[in-house]
UniProtKB/TrEMBL annotation:
Keyword Amino-acid biosynthesis: yes
Source organism phylogeny: Bacteria, Pseudomonadati, Pseudomonadota, Alphaproteobacteria, Hyphomicrobiales
SUPFAM superfamilies in the cross-refs: Aminoacid dehydrogenase-like, N-terminal domain, NAD(P)-binding Rossmann-fold domains
GO cellular component term, pick one: cytosol
Domain SDH C-terminal stretches: 259-284
Record pathway: Metabolic intermediate biosynthesis; chorismate biosynthesis; chorismate from D-erythrose 4-phosphate and phosphoenolpyruvate: step 4/7
Any one biological process term the GO annotation gives: chorismate biosynthetic process
Protein name: Shikimate dehydrogenase
EC number: 1.1.1.25
Gene Ontology MF term list: NADP binding; shikimate 3-dehydrogenase (NADP+) activity
Coiled coil: none
Pfam families (UniProt xref): SDH_C (PF18317), Shikimate_dh_N (PF08501)
Gene source species: Ensifer canadensis
Keywords: Amino-acid biosynthesis, Aromatic amino acid biosynthesis, Oxidoreductase
Amino acid sequence: MKAVEMTETLLKPLKAGLIGAGIQASLTPAMHMREGAAQGLTYEYELIDLTQRGASPDDLPQLLREAEQRGLCGLNITHPCKQLVIPFLDELSDEARDLGAVNTVVLKAGRRIGHNTDWWGFAEGFRRGLPGVALSHAVQLGAGGAGVATAYAILSMGLTSLTVFDREIERAEALVSSMSPLFPQAHIVAGTDLPSAMRAADGLLHATPTGMAKYPGLPLPAELLEPHHWVAEVVYFPLETELLTEARRRGCKTLDGGGMAVFQAVGAFRLFTGREPDAARMLAHFWALTA
């Protein structure tokens, strides 16, 4: 009987998907399906692209119902739906509740359970890519969805002081207000003087779209980067952003956005399938896709 059940598990297709806008270039389906195949699973992963469908976040309730009706085991959620999906879920993990954002929804037994693997993905990539760097004071650029995840991650890793900058000061202040009660031992402030903050910082977290193909350029004046800084990027299209090129040229240790992209998928795969993914294999596949 056990052998029959195991065979059925391997043969029964698992189906998952990604909801977001303008996501046709996403590497997430390839990473999930390749790892599923390596584990002997029949695993289908689809894109539910709001832009391509002429849909909007207002259609989330219907899209969630359709996913359940078609037997999907889970959904990844990306821009612009990470906050907007929350009212339509039955339960949140502690991290998703703390962050106020969901990037992974498990559909099981008629319930929708929201998780956030973005913060863990960034933290795991940081631990592997920048081991042993100083974590006294960091500057973060960007206080949107990615910025909330990177701030939560770096503070969870023991950072003692974080200065947050955003073009909209209200967003930076909102991030400070949400993180301060969660990490009372840390000094978290919205910044107003970037040159001064960079002089005092060990490193820089970059969590804005600047550096993406459609938003080229540097997110700060190059002369603010000094050799003692580490620089951690969230952008991974392209992997080699202008910020990373300039930072390395100036002697900084750097981390590209690939780790966050891969490890959030590692976390989501674990939640969707109940199996432990091979992180090294998923990393190797990601590098092959982006080579």
